[in-house]
Structures are given as C-alpha cells and as structure tokens.
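Pipeline run #58 for the internal structure catalog. This entry was flagged by the ingest filter as a single-chain record with no existing model, so it goes straight to prediction. Upstream metadata was stripped on purpose; only the residue string is passed forward. Reviewer on rotation: M.T. Logging verbosity set to normal.
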Amino acid sequence: MTFCIAALMALTVAMAGWALYYFHGLLALGSGDKVLRTLQEQQSTFNIVLTVVLVLAVLLGLAAISYFFRRVVRPLGDFAAYFDAIAKGDLTQRIRVLTANEIGDLFESLGRMQESLVKTTTTVRLGLEEIHAGAQEIAQGNTNISSRTEEQAASLQQTAASMEQLAGTVRQNADNAQQANQLAATASDVAHRGGSAVNEVVATMQGISASSNKISDIVGVIDSIAFQTNILALNAAVEAARAGEQGKGFAVVAAEVRALAQRSAQAAREITALIEDSVRKVTEGSSQVERAGATMQEIVDSVRRVTDIMGEITAATIEQSSGIDQVNRAVSQMDETTQYNARLVEQAALASSGLSEQVTKVNQAIAFFRSPGTEVIDVSARRVANRRSVAAASSETEHRRSPALNGSAAATKASPPTKGLSAPAKAAPAAKTTAAQDDSQRLLRPDLSKSSSAASDDDWEEF
C-alpha cells in the first residue's frame, strides 16, 4: 500500500516535471506559429505519454484498492463479526491474527479481551455453583436450627409453666410455714403458761403437804389430850369407888368422860390415818406434778426450738420463693430470646432462599456466554476442602443429639454448625477434563481490597 502511494506520487511528479519542461521549451520558441506547429507535431507523443501515465495511474489505483480491501476492509469485517459473536455471547471462536500492523494489534487486543471474558465467566460460573451449594446448605442448616429453636421455645414455655406452678406451690408453702410459725409461737406461749401453772400447782401441793403435816401434829395433840383425859377419867372412877355412895354420880361422869376420851382417841386415830393417806397422796401428787412440770418445761423448750426451726424454714421458703421468681423471670426472658432467635433464623432462611434465587438469576445471565470446553483457561482460585464432609458430620451429630433435645423439658442451646476450612491450594487448570468436577467443590469470592486488572491467585480468598 505504501509502495503504490509512493509510485503514484513519483509518477505525478514526473508528469508535472515533464509538462513544465515541455511548456518551457514552447515558450523558448517565441512566436505563436512555431508553438502551434510544435504542438501539432508532438501531439501524438503527448497523447501516448498521457495514455501511458493514465494507464499506470489506473493500475496503481487498482492495486492500492485491492491492497486496502485485503489489508483493511476485510479484516475490519472479520473484526466486526468477532465483536458481533462476542455480543451474542459466543466466546468459542478462536481469533486469528494474520497481519502485523495496527489491525493485527487490534485483533491481538480482541483476543486478550475474549480470553479475559472466558476466564471471568468460567470463574464466575464456578463461584456461582459453589455459592448456590453453600446457600442451599445454609438454608438447610437454618431450617434445622429453626425447628430446633421452635422445639427449644416449646420446652422453655413448658418450663416456664412448670416454674410458675412451682412458684405458686412455694408461695403457698411459705404462707403455710408462716401460719405454722405463728401457731408454734402460740403453742410456745401456751406451753409456757402451762409450765407456770404447773409450777403454781406444785407450790400449792407443797403448801397442802405442809398444812397436812400441821394437821397431823394437831391430831397428835388431840390424841395425847384424849389419852390424858382417859387416864384422868380412870383416876376419877377409882376415886368415886373409894367414895362409895357419895361418889356414884361422879363415877357416872367419869365413865362418860372416859367414853368420850376413848371416842376422841378413836376419832383422832381415824383422822390421823386419813391425814397420813392424804399426805401420802399429796406427796405422790407433788412428785407427779414436779414430773409434769419438768415435762412441761421440756415441751416448752421443744416448742421454742420448733418455733425457731419454723422461723428458719419460713425465711428459707421466702428466699426460695424469691429465687424461683427470679428463675421464672429468667426463663421467661430466655423464652422471649429464643422466640426472637427463631424469627431471626426464619429471616436468615428467607435471605438464604433469596440468595439462592439471585444466584440462579446470575447463573442464567452468565449462561448467556458460551465458553469453549477445551480451551486452556487459567482459573486462579483456592479450594475449601472437607467443607461438605465436615458439614455432613456436623449434621449427623446434631441428628444424634436431637432425641435428647426433644425429650428434655429444660432449655437447651443448639450447637452452631462447625466450620471446616482447609489450607489454601491452587486449583488445577480448566483445560483438564476433571476441572468442572473438581471446581464444583470450590467456594470463592472476590477480594475487593486488592486492585488488579488480570485474574491472579491473590484475587480470591476463601471463606
């Protein structure tokens, strides 16, 4: 192309030079007749030269047009076709660079752009697959946690109801203990008064015993007087017998006095026997009353100890009632927190479902691009190994623990899912036939903190 343009320019310059030289010669002839004759003589030569020049110009123009079509127009058409295919999502066409000029540079840039698009779409597709799998696992885990949280909330409600009943029972026991404490205090007062009354009875019995002893002494004096009176009557009878007839009346009086003295002595002996029996019974009664007083004192002491114990029981019951009320409030708060957590888990499950739907939509959008299956695509990523196995083991452990959670009436906390993260390892190239299977277990996300135009191993981080 450059050669043709240079040839046309050289031919134009030569024609211009020849024309100038020719007209300069004509001007040198001077007169017009000479010039006319000269023009007529050299007209054929001028026509031949002009024809040759025109033919050469046409040939050079055709060559330039052909060169321009082959080197510019046709590559630009191919370039537009490649762009149209990329716009339609076809990334399977191999872009060939046939020239080494600026058009070739454009094709090389287009090839690099297509390669970057292939890498990006492949990486995004693999990442979307892993995100979709992770979202499904998260949704399943949230569903399990939601069901367990609901079971825990039901258990907490049952526990709260039981604690409320227990609190009512403890309050009733506290009231009964207070009443029992009051009754014990009343019984202690009654026992104390009974002990005082028994002590008074003991003192009275002791006074009766002393009075009986005094009566016994008085009866002894009466018996002594009756004995002496009997002796005097006997002496009077003897003296009356000595007096004869004059002493008969005195003898009758003496006999009556002796009979009276004997009856008095008999009555004194009977009174003495009764007094002795009364003193014996009073003594026995005093002993019994003393024993009753000691027993009553023991009862008073026991009732006092029972009163103290009932006071301690009442205080402990009141403290227990207060503690149960606090536990009941704590269980109620736990119930509210568990219900709130259940709502949060449901929201997380909905968010996971929404994430899965968004991933499906993005995957459908990425599916618009058709990437070559056997292209050498260097997809840089890091693998999250053992994630599925650890999640399965965690699910099995939770499944084993679920019967204990269902059978327990107390509040239990659901164990969080175990995260198993392995050391980062570079993924194999996508040109291998097993790359799609291996990459299906890869969970990637872009590291936005690092700015890089090309995909590299450091552009992705595991989570």
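catalog note: The helical segments are 2-29, 32-41, 43-87, 102-243, 248-366, 387-407, 435-439.
catalog note: Confidence is low (pLDDT under 50) at residues 374-395, 397-463.
status: ready for reviewer M.T.
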